[in-house]
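Quick start: what a row looks like.
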Amino acid sequence: MRRRVAIVGYAQSHHQHNMQKTREDMVFEVCKEALHNAGILREDLDTVVTASTDFLDGRTISSVFLSMAVGAFMKDESKVEEDGTFALYYALMKILASSHDIALVEAHTQGSTLNPHQVSYYTLDPLFDRQIGVLNDIAAAALQARLYMNRYSVSEKHLAMVAVKNVTNASKNPYAHRKMPDLSVKEVMSSKVFYDPIRELTMSPISDGACAVILASEEKAKKITDKPVWIEGVGTCQDPYLRDRNRERLDSLQTAARTAYKMAGIKNPLSELDVAEVSEKFAHEELMIYEALGLCKEGEGKKLIERGTTRRDGSMPVNPSGGALGADPTCATGLVRVIEAAKQIRGEAGKYQVPDVRRALAHGQFGICAQKNTVYILGGQGS
């Protein structure tokens, strides 16, 4: 990148089910806190980008009701559909193009308002899949999980081990939704089955939540903070429709990761990255994500979880915050990963801080079976 861009502030809500706040209040609070965290005022913002979907908000042109809450009154304002990492990508381009210097990016979902799994029907082929009513995101994930498990001899125990790692990590995160510090593999494997092998504790909870990130050009960032988190690389890609792609791999994530690595100059992610925050909507996806990110060879994701490599105290910690299994405010989940990665670099992760983090990866996804993916490589001053 010719023009450097940094994260200079951020905030997130305490994710939970059925938050007793209006969407506007929830969004206003995180935007206000993000500005405070950066030490700037609304007047300092050049542009505001929000991320949500009309389907999940339950109203048409939903962003129009949030203009005041996000601080966009009389400012350049845009809305990007779906995950917050896509909105961050757009804001990044605005700054790289020298159109703006400081951007606020906000993402939110109140899953208790409209069930995201029911909404997933509307992303299916309207002439066949939607009409027969068999598929939704959970059923499709179950098919993907079985294909992947059968090909690489992955057991349900491996999935339970991912769930235990992330959910117990979430117990140390004050912003997480699902907190079960004493969760065991046995308890995960005895939890309710939705579509075999997807169980209640191997899929993300339905969460209400919001978050906001403030980006700034290098010149502005150095004036705003002495702890900028630089965006060193970024990549984004999406796969074809569900039935038109190989569901045993996350090809679009692999492409996005390779693009981000090339931009950041990373050749061996397992040794060059200190921590990763990924959006695993289902436990089996995390194993597939390891492989797509190049942390191991294809089919060897299970070995990383067996060896404890991706534990918080392992050599390559993944989701020390708890990841999406700890909280999943759908459109905000990926942007929360960016915040959690930035917190690790700035040493602000509290009880789940990984020591000596200089470079981190953040991943966001959206769509059935992780169809669309974005990867960010973040670095601190010494990276």
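That is the whole record. The chain has 15 helices and eleven strands. The longest helix spans residues 23-38.
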